[in-house]
Recombinase family protein
Amino acid sequence: MNQRIGYASVSTDDQHLHLQRSALKQVGCGLIYEEAASGKTATRPELEQCRKVLRAGDTLVVWRLDRLGRSLPDLVQIVADLEQQGVYFESLTEKIETGSEAGKLTFHVFAALAEFERSLIRERTQAGLAAARARGRAGGRRPKLDEQQVREIKVLLRDPGIHVADVARRYGVSRTTLYKHVGVIAPRL
């Protein structure tokens, strides 16, 4: 038997699930998974549990699109995964549902816009990196040690009485950074 399963989430503890819960019950969701998780949090155990319960022919219902995905690309990926399982998706506020051809079309327009947005971001990033290279700026993090410091450290480490950890502390870097920049083969504490 096909079920309508709800998923409700809030991003902070001072927000409440009452409105979402009520709306989901009103449209016939017998089972509702509820979660309070930050939008930045990658792990959402209730959503994962909800997705495990869904079977082909079921419908996952949310109050609003932003309750399901942390970003538009994330939302598109979740709905695509559901579609592969034969699970439908419905968002009450935006009146989007993937159970009909018109609903699928609407959602795929959103997906196309998300892909377009990713392409624009990628293009801008590449253009910015090319412009920086043209100005003589290499990308990436600046080295922790300059050439003069590397020469000084090499001289210091020739003395077997000097410990790598002491030199690292003196220059404000880790031992690993010293090994990387100076090429110390046998680590000495």
